[in-house]
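User: Please go through the entry that follows and flag anything odd:
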Amino acid sequence: MAKQARAIRTRRIILEAAAKVFEEYGYQAATITEILKVAGVTKGALYFHFESKEDLAHGVLTEQNQRLTVPQRACEMQELIDVVALHGHQLQTSPMVRAGVRLSMNQQAHGLDRSGPFTRWVKVIQGLLDAARTQGELLPHVDTVETAGVIVGSFAGVQSMSEVASDYEDLALRVAALMRHLLPSIVLPSVLASLDLAEDRGARVFAEISESATESAMEADAEPDMEHGTEHALLSHG
């Protein structure tokens, strides 16, 4: 178990180093040597987990979509908004997410398949739209496949514009504006009126997830003591 935990930790260190190097130098200019230097691991450790620079880049691209999960909402469109807003917040705060997005948008990354994140995002958004349709939240004309592509493509454009204009500092404002413009053509007016589209929505969702994770960790830490106490009680009564 300790060996497995150490391997997971090493893989994480390598991915975080790769994200930092890819973000700073870009895919083409990044080197395994620089990633090793930043990670502080041996070449053997790196190649145990990743076969090549391309494999490392795919690891970063995949990791950006696995950082956090938005809690399920009663309103599916609110959940969709929270997914988009949280991703925007992570672009501002997480080097791993930022590096993954920049890799996926890097047209100079020749030989690297950058389609994965877009395909996954479209699938996630379409799933939420399909669920929203089932719950009667969408306007009758909405094609969920087409709409998912529009939302993902629009977000990609907005985040790219924010990166150039302000290094993502104004991204929350731009994401909120994007949602305010898109949703009236998708969502029933009665549902639209109930949605939280505030600029700080992503930050609040992140805080909610962090608080929940902290509570879960505290409960997990407490469980062994509770079990130990229960065992003591049973033995004393035996």
